[in-house]
Amino acid sequence: MEEIKENDAKIEEPGGIVRRGFGNIIDVLLIIALTTLLGTLFGSKDSLAFDLLEFLYYILTPVLWVGYTVGKKLVGVQINRVDGNKVSIWTMLKRHLIATIALASPILIGALLLIITTDIPFSILIESGTLTEEERNVLTTNDSTIITYATIGGIGTIVLNLVNIFMVGLRKDHRGIHDFIAGTYVKITKA
Q1: How many angstroms separate the Cα of 101 from the Cα of each of 47, 81, 135, 182, 183?
Q2: How many domains would you assign to the chain?
Q3: Per-residue pLDDT tens digits for 157-180
Q4: Three-class secondary structure assignment of the chain
Q5: Across-strand partners of 9?
Q6: Using an 8 Å Cβ cutoff, are 186 and 179 in contact?
Q7: What is the pLDDT, as a whole number, of residue 101?
Q8: Chain-centre distance of CA 189, in angstroms?
Q9: CA angle, 66 as apex, 60 and 49 as ends, to 5°?
Q10: Residue 163 sits in which domain range?
Q11: Which of 190, 189, 186, 191 minimizes the C-alpha distance to 168?
């Protein structure tokens, strides 16, 4: 049994990128199936339903099922806290929500800079109302500022996510940025 020490905490049998990846694929397919089923039953094709279901699934399922999601259980890995305590809602909020924001931060910063430099009011982002002709022109122009912020933000987000993937794949403890933010690691529970 492989054991890694980190600040007096034991990380036992860390789960690698392949198992974790397949577990995530299973989870995403399950969420898509559930959202499609619920959308069909209730006549809604709202993407908010998918987002809400995904959020609740990734936060609550590991808390209620001792570190497992359906995908993680099927591939034999479990989310554990480095300090040995059970995962909590706060742990999973840090792991899923805060880490998602952190990993998307370059594109979020690019969008914020775009809003600031093009004088597009925040109400456009908050409300899904119609755009004025001027606002439409700003968003549809080939303005180099828009292209620059979108490109730099997109590339930054891709690079940060690739770093996260390489961390999970190459580090001895297989911990990614989201694991460090939440103080978690993923443990192999079956061969």
Answers
A1: 19, 21, 27, 13, 16
A2: 1
A3: 888 889 999 999 999 999 999 999
A4: CCEEEECCEEEECECCHHHHHHHHHHHHHHHHHHHHHHHHHHCCCCHHHHHHHHHHHHHHHHHHCCCCCHHHHHHCEEEEECCCCCCCHHHHHHHHHHHHHHHCHHHHHHHHHHHHHHCCCHHHHHCCCCCCHHHHHHHHCCCHHHHHHHHHHHHHHHHHHHHHHHHHHHCCCCCCHHHHHHCEEEEECCC
A5: 6
A6: yes
A7: 87
A8: 23
A9: 20
A10: 3-188
A11: 186
Distance between CA atoms of 7 and 175, rounded to whole angstroms? 14
Q: Work out the angle between the directed axes of helices 47-64 and 17-42 (0-180°, nearest 10).
A: 130
Please report, as a single letter, which amino acid is at residue 51. D
What would the pLDDT profile of 114-134 be if each residue is shown by its tens digit? 767 766 554 444 444 555 666
Written as one letter, the residue type at 34 is: L
Q: Residue 37 is which amino acid?
A: L
106 vs 121: which has the higher pLDDT: 106
Name the residue type at position 107.
I
Q: Specify the amino acid at residue 110.
A: G
pTM: 0.75
Q: Does the pLDDT at position 100 exceed 90?
A: no
